[in-house]
Amino acid sequence: MEGDCLSCMKYLMFLFNFFIFLGGACLLGLGIWVIVDPTGFREIVAANPLLFTGAYIMLAMGAMLFLLGFLGCCGAIRENKCLLLFFFMFILLIFLAELSAAILAFIFRENLTREFFTKELKKHYQRNNDTDVFSSTWNSVMITFACCGVNGPEDFEAIPHLPYSSLEKATPEACCQRELQSREGMFVNKEACLAGVERFQNRQGCYTVILNSFETYVYLAGALAIGVLAIELFAMIFAMCLFRGIQ
């Protein structure tokens, strides 16, 4: 009976590690895509140190899970106690790190409010100054998502207008409609947009546009994270049971 139980545990361990292996491969692929993607996200990621760091953390986590899943599969099939112990310790560290990150994200979620982004935009945005990381990132976001400001063009009323414009309420170029939503895209009517003609401007705020765009993916990512944590927990339990059962 013990032999049957050990055999069942071994194959369950292999199955869970196979899912970890696949999850690591997905994270690795996603991290590579975010860094090399030519459609605009690479520009945003490169301009924002936080996103840049996050992309490489995702890449590192994916590579680590990919390797650990492979080692776990090998340790389970070959019944190698050294590999199983190595797997258990590293998967425990990853589990604790992911749990800590989830707790911190929950605690600091208040910093992702509409008011916070509006305040930061009005304080740091320098319009077409692409040498400024904050401004360049915001311009890339507004161009990519065809939006303007956090709430709309009115967010820029208190921000000094461009030197060549005598308008009191100048609209940034990034808010002007383009035929293609990229920096290389041609303006529909740049002069009319900067003169305040609303039909040539992107009037919707970026907060609403991005929230609507990623709402489904946020829930999906949350569900995926819970699933990954559950798989890692079961994998650790099976690894320790298999470790204790191997003679």
UniProtKB/TrEMBL annotation:
Keywords: Glycoprotein, Membrane, Transmembrane, Transmembrane helix. It is found in: Membrane. PROSITE patterns: TM4_1 (PS00421). GO terms for cellular component: plasma membrane. The keyword Cytoplasm does not apply. It is a multi-pass membrane protein. The chain crosses the membrane at residues 12-36, 56-77, 84-108, 217-243. SUPFAM superfamilies: Tetraspanin. It comes from the Eukaryota. PANTHER family: TETRASPANIN (PTHR19282), TETRASPANIN-18 (PTHR19282:SF249). Belongs to the tetraspanin (TM4SF) family. This is Tetraspanin. It comes from Myiagra hebetior.
